[in-house]
């Protein structure tokens, strides 16, 4: 019974030491690019958790710039499979058909 108690104590100390840093972390506030600024003086349009409002951004890039992938997608094409006829090749007067 000592090992599980020691593990629980170590996990508790680890979480207690990490929790204050995680709780104190500020949310990422991105600048919202817009042509019109209807915010009060000193503020600008921002996005925080998908909501557009007035404030001061704490990130240097916009959300769209952060999510943009640096390289374009490469389109790959497969070689087309040979097409088969839906009709059977049956010469006139021959018995049976062959499906080539």
Quick tags:
three-stranded antiparallel sheet, 100 residues, flat, alpha+beta
Question: Could you explain the architecture of this structure?
Answer:
With 100 residues, the protein is of the alpha+beta class. The chain has a domain at 2-67. Helix content is 28%, strand content 12%. It has helices at 2-24, 63-67, and strands spanning 30-31, 44-48, 51-55. It has a three-stranded antiparallel sheet, with no helix packed on it. The longest helix is centred in the N-terminal third of the chain and has 23 residues, at 2-24. The radius of gyration is 33 Å and the shape is flat. The termini are far apart. Residues 1-24 form the signal peptide. Keywords: Signal.
Q: What is the element layout, followed by pairings?
A:
Blueprint: H1 2-24, E1 30-31, E2 44-48, E3 51-55, H2 63-67
Antiparallel strand pairs: 1-2, 2-3
Provide a concise account of the structure shown.
With 100 residues, this protein is α+β, with helices and mostly antiparallel strands. The protein has two helices and three strands; from the N terminus they run αβββα. It has helices at 2-24, 63-67; strands at 30-31, 44-48, 51-55.
